[in-house]
């Protein structure tokens, strides 16, 4: 490329650097770096990240740091490359025993994660410095780094190496606290530590608790007893090990052989009840490695004589075939006494690989002839496909044919309408001495029925009685069917009565037999008896008649059934639909809803989950009885549909009707309270939960934490969380999400550390909460660190939600270009939401040029996204471009992109009041406006200046101020102030992001009236108190 005079750009350098990193080509990377500096691309964030990654992977961290420090801005990829490079270097030096170099890199790192500490601990272990490893573990804990399983395994190994029993017991306590004592890897290390420290009682206690033991654990116990001079126990355990685990025996043989201790290997080998190819191979290789070639050959011949040569010869066939030597492959194959499917596959695969199609086909035919199972399978396949010529060709070539093969041919002829051929084949089968089984007789009886061969059927009946197959339900049904179709109802009835149980097929065969013989009365009598004895049979008959379009017969059966299940109702409805009787189907459907509570509940649940609450309510109201499942489905449906108030009304109605809620119901109720910030309703639900003894349910507790957090009371959320006996990742996520919503970034970080200390593994949702917390608190560096931690340490792949949080984090902080770089570098396609996040950041920081590009991206994906128009319009208005702002509004209206109206809710005296901008409906509106007017005067006196920049109306400034005064959140606050006692905190919910003027106004109001005002908008919580907001004006 360079020789042709083409000038590389930043898009060229990135893949070149990636190639150098992958190949560890340091010199090539340095030459590329020089060229990058000449072209002026070094400042580019992608090129810079590529350079850091290349130097880090090549082990030159000084160069990586030099590039990193020169970069004007760093993205998350750069941080990840640098951190991972340091970790890999520490690990490499530790494994090579160069601890001085490892410490040099370790001390230069800006922060050390658990992987880095692990590398140092294992490095000291490898160098025989167990005491230093333990000291390092203590320092790690003092610095607040939470150990993982790998750390504690290293600590146990260190304790074993220096016989530090008490330190080992301390590590064991931590393992139990974190729930890792049942882990096989950790368990083996515990057994080894106690055994090497001489505490065989503790070792045995751990050993017995382990769900399964591997060869390492058994060996650790045996050697422990040997060291403690308890030879008898060691021998006893060794014998028990051999009895319980053949794999352990093979592993011991392999271990002794690799260590050159062939006497011990032979001792184990000779005691094994059976040996596989792996065990033989381990012994042979052991003798080879010890220079005992003749012994190895003798053992190989012995292995062949004992029958293990099948595995070896299969491997030889496979090896020769892959190497292209098909002659040798065939030679080995032909010397084998028998061939299994592996042998055939190896040979056929070799022919196919080398383009010898004809040879493959010839040997395939030979395989079919030699292998009865393969041949039978082919016959069965051809017969089921109706290719009876092909089936007969394979069948006739088989040297031996088992009963399965004969039966497949018989069924094939019956299916093809060749009953006579099927019977001829049955006679031939008997002549060749093959004994028919129950399945064969079913095929033969079907053949007799198909050609009405009554005498042949009777002979088959006599034969099957001799073989003891008459009791088989399928044979019995086939006999009844054969006699009925042949017109011999007396024989059919005799067989029917002798059967221990009858299924729907048998009943139907008898009834239809009587119908065919013109014995209608007997058919009807049997039919009535069938209904009394078997409800399932009734359902099957309804279904059969309905599918045949005989709805009169279907109704006749349906009306006589004592009870009907959902299957029966559905069969009737579909029958009417298929007959074009839609109205009858609907009438039956409504009747079914009224009669069948289970069906009704299922319908309610289905409609609710689909968001069709009108249909769900219609079915719900028609039900004669409603179980808790039905009420719960309705509650969840209203919550999902954004109707939290209706969900709570329904919950109150449910209790009035005496229906006892269960844990799932309470989860739905708590979600409803959270959705509308109904704190008092939530507290009452909490009391009800305690009374119902559902508080121990982990989902209920997590929902309580979530409800209190979303209702603005983090104190209650923390109180519930701290009383939980144990925490899973769901409860931690609920708490961290609460801190994120409230902008309490520091609390989120502290509790994440506590989560790690408890040994709970974070998931992708955990990191969404953490990144969101960092975004709302302006913790850019911490957010970048968490992203790197997620992707490099926990190996959790980033999803669209994580990228959106990162864009929001950087965008709010003013790093707009870095935020755009993240979107451009995403492996997945950006959606409108992520472009909207950056557009919102452009509005905050007044970047018109980028904002226009972001708005274009949003509207390309969602042409009717009103929020995109509004944000761009507000951006223009905030920067003084009122004409452009009006143009955007006009375009929005032309595209019929409807703005979501702003709404605010407030709960006062157990009632929820809703307000919209310029509200005129509320009965107290005159008093509310008067209260607002009073507050406005006080605010102006305190220095409040209305922010009218975002008001787009082409009107006088005074009218703009009036418009701002009637925003829904201000109306709600005024109503709350006049409806509650002085000093009572106010809690309101806004469905959109709170505007700048309302944010400023609420600060002034909180100071004037000396009240705490909590506002939850679409993004987060704002806690206003004494003129200050908890967000510190960063939102």
Automatic annotation (TrEMBL):
PROSITE patterns in alphabetical order: PPR (PS51375)
**Where in the sequence is the signal peptide annotated?**
none
SUPFAM superfamilies attached here? TPR-like (SSF48452)
Keywords annotated in UniProt: Repeat
Where the record annotates domain DYW, the positions are: 943-1035
Q: Which domain of life is it from?
A: Eukaryota
Question: Record's Gene3D superfamilies?
Answer: Tetratricopeptide repeat domain
PPR repeat locations:
44-78, 113-147, 183-213, 214-248, 276-310, 340-374, 402-436, 472-502, 503-537, 565-599, 627-661, 697-727, 728-762
> Mind telling me which residue stretches traverse the membrane in this protein?
none
The record ties this protein, via NCBIfam families, to:
PPR
This protein is called DYW domain-containing protein
Q: Which organism is it from?
A: Sphagnum troendelagicum
């Amino acid at each position: 490329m360079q020789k042709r005079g083409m000038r590389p750009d930043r898009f060229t350098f990135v893949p070149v650097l990636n190639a150098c990193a992958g190949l560890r080509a340091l010199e090539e990377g340095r030459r590329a770096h020089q060229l990058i500096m000449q072209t002026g691309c070094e400042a580019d964030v992608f090129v810079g990240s590529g350079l850091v990654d290349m130097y880090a992977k090549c082990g030159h961290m000084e160069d990586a740091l030099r590039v990193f420090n020169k970069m004007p801005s760093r993205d998350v990829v750069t941080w990840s490359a640098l951190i991972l490079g340091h970790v890999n270097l520490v690990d490499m030096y530790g494994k090579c025993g160069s601890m001085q170099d490892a410490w040099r890199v370790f001390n230069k790192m800006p922060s050390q994660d658990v992987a880095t500490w692990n590398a140092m601990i294992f490095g000291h272990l490898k160098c025989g410095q167990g005491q230093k490893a333990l000291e390092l573990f203590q320092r790690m804990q003092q610095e607040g780094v939470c150990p993982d399983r790998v750390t504690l395994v290293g600590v146990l190994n260190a304790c074993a190496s220096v016989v530090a029993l008490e330190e080992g017991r301390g590590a064991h306590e931590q393992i139990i606290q974190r729930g890792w004592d049942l882990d096989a890897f950790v368990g083996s290390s515990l057994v080894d530590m106690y055994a090497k420290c001489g505490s065989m009682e503790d070792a045995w206690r751990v050993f017995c608790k382990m769900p399964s033991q591997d060869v390492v654990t058994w060996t650790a116990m045996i050697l422990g007893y040997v060291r403690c001079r308890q030879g008898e126990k060691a021998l006893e355990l060794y014998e028990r090990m051999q009895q319980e685990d053949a794999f352990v025996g093979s592993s011991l043989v392999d271990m002794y052989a690799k260590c050159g201790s062939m006497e011990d290997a032979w001792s184990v080998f000779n005691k094994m009840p059976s040996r596989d190819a792996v065990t033989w191979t381990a012994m042979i290789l052991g003798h080879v490695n010890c220079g005992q070639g003749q012994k190895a050959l003798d053992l190989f011949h012995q292995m062949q004589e004992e029958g293990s040569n099948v595995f070896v010869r299969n491997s030889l066939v496979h090896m020769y075939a892959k190497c292209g030597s098909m002659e040798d492959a065939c030679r080995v194959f032909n010397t084998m006494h028998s061939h299994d499917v592996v042998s055939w596959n190896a040979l056929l695969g070799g022919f196919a690989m080398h383009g010898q199609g004809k040879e493959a086909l010839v040997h395939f035919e030979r395989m079919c002839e030699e292998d009865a199972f393969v041949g039978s399978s082919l016959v069965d396949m051809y017969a089921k496909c109706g290719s009876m010529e092909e089936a007969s060709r394979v069948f006739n070539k088989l040297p031996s044919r088992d009963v399965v093969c004969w039966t497949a041919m018989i069924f094939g002829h019956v299916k093809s309408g060749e009953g006579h051929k099927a019977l001829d084949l049955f006679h031939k089968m008997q002549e060749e001495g093959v004994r028919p089984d129950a399945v064969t007789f079913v095929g033969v009886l079907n053949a007799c029925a198909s050609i009405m061969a009554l005498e042949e059927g009777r002979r088959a009946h006599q034969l099957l009685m001799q073989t003891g197959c008459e009791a088989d339900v399928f044979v019995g049904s086939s006999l009844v069917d054969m006699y009925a179709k042949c017109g011999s109802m007396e024989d059919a009835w005799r067989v029917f009565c002798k059967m221990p149980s009858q299924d729907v097929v048998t009943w139907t065969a008898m009834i239809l037999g009587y119908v065919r013989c013109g014995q209608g009365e007997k058919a009807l009598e049997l039919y009535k008896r069938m209904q009394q004895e078997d409800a399932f049979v009734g359902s099957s008959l309804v279904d059969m008649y309905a599918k045949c379009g005989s709805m009169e017969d279907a109704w006749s059966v349906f009306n006589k059934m004592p009870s009907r299940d959902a299957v029966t109702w559905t069969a009737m409805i579909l029958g009417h639909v298929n007959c074009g009787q839609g109205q009858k189907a609907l009438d039956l459907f409504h009747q079914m809803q009224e009669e069948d509570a289970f069906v009704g509940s299922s319908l309610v649940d289905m409609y609710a989950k689909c968001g069709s609450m009108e249909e769900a309510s219609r079915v719900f109201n028609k039900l004669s009885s409603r179980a808790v499942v039905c009420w719960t489905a309705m509650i969840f449906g209203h919550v999902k549909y954004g109707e939290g108030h209706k969900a709570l009304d329904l919950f109150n109605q449910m209790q009035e009707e005496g229906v006892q809620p269960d844990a799932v119901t309470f989860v739905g109720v708590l979600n409803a309270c959270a959705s509308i910030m109904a704190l008092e309703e939530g507290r009452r639900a909490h009391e009800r939960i305690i009374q119902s003894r559902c508080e121990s349910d982990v989902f209920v507790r997590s929902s309580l934490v979530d409800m209190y957090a979303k209702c603005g009371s983090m104190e209650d959320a923390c109180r519930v969380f701290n009383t939980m006996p144990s925490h899973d990742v769901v409860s931690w996520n609920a708490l961290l999400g609460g801190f994120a919503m409230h902008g309490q970034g520091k609390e989120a970080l502290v509790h994440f550390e506590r989560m790690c200390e408890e040994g709970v593994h974070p998931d992708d949702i955990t990191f969404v909460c953490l990144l969101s917390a960092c975004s709302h608190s302006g913790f850019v560096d911490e957010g970048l660190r968490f992203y790197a931690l997620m992707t490099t340490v926990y190996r959790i792949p980033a999803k669209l939600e994580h990228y959106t949080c990162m864009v929001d984090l950087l965008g709010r902080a003013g790093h707009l270009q870095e935020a755009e770089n993240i979107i451009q570098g995403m492996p997945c396609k950006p959606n409108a939401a992520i472009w909207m996040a950056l557009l919102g950041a452009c509005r905050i920081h007044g970047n018109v040029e980028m904002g226009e590009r972001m708005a274009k991206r949003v509207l390309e994906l969602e042409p009717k996204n009103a929020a995109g128009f509004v944000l761009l319009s507000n951006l223009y208005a905030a920067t003084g471009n009122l004409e452009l702002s009006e143009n955007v509004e006009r375009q929005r209206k032309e595209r019929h992109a409807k703005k979501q109206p702003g709404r605010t809710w407030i709960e006062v005296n157990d009632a929820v009041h809703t307000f919209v901008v310029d509200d005129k409906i509320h009965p107290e509106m005159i008093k509310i406006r008067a209260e607002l007017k009073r507050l406005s005067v006080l605010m102006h006196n305190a220095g409040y200046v209305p922010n009218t920049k975002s008001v787009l109306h082409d009107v006088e400034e005074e009218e703009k101020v009036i418009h701002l005064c009637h925003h829904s959140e201000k109306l709600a606050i005024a109503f709350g102030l006049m409806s509650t006692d002085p000093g009572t905190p106010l809690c309101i919910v806004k469905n959109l992001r709170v505007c700048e003027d309302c944010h400023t106004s609420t600060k002034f109001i909180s100071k004037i009236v000396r009240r705490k005002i909590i506002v939850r908008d679409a993004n987060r919580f704002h806690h206003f108190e004494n003129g200050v907001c908890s967000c510190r004006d960063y939102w």
